[in-house]
Design goal:
Length: 181
């Protein structure tokens, strides 16, 4: 089962549409999560239809910021449990197997919002006994080796995120694809 999670940084031009189509063709995912779409549902629905996904859920962009899209194929059952500007929390069933929780995340980019977000996000874990997977962009770099250029890693943000992972009993799975995604 393949998932694609992509911080699109906007889906308003033919280059981004082509990159999306090429990625979907290459990986043939059953679930696609797009963050920072900077678009409203009506626009994203046209893209979903063109790319032949049967199900969808959206958190509209606010002005020219944010925006989340979740698409899935007909063989996947997705129930939306909760959503916000920064995540879509779901219950997924594949081929009638045991349901599991998957939260698709786009962490807040602004430092002032991060600590409260992790406190609120932790409540999702406390509310479930299901297996849980978190997919997306947390907008935190925990080690300088994970980035090139720009400002140095903010240790307090990295610690907050690592503490959250520890308390929630989470592990980081290896990525497949570009190193800086």
């Amino acid at each position: 089962m393949a998932f694609v999670a992509w911080n699109a940084r906007g889906l308003g031009n033919s280059n981004s549409h082509r990159a999306l189509r090429d990625t979907l063709t290459k990986f043939n995912p059953c679930i696609v999560f797009l963050s920072e779409t900077k678009k409203k549902q009506k626009y994203l629905e046209r893209l979903r239809t063109k790319n032949r996904f049967s199900g969808s859920f959206y958190v509209d962009a606010r002005g020219l910021a944010c925006g989340l899209a979740l698409w899935w194929t007909e063989d996947i059952s997705v129930t939306i449990l909760k959503d916000s500007t920064n995540f879509i929390d779901t219950l997924i069933v594949v081929n009638g197997e045991e349901p599991w929780q998957c939260t698709f995340i786009y962490g807040p980019p602004h430092t002032a919002e991060k600590q409260q977000f992790w406190r609120d996000f932790h409540c999702l874990r406390q509310d479930t006994t299901n297996k849980w997977c978190v997919i997306g962009d947390v907008n935190i770099v925990v080690d300088q080796s994970e980035k090139e250029g720009g400002n140095p890693v903010i240790n307090s943000q990295a610690k907050c995120f690592l503490d959250f992972m520890d308390v929630a009993g989470m592990i980081e799975l290896p990525i497949k694809g570009g190193m800086y995604t």
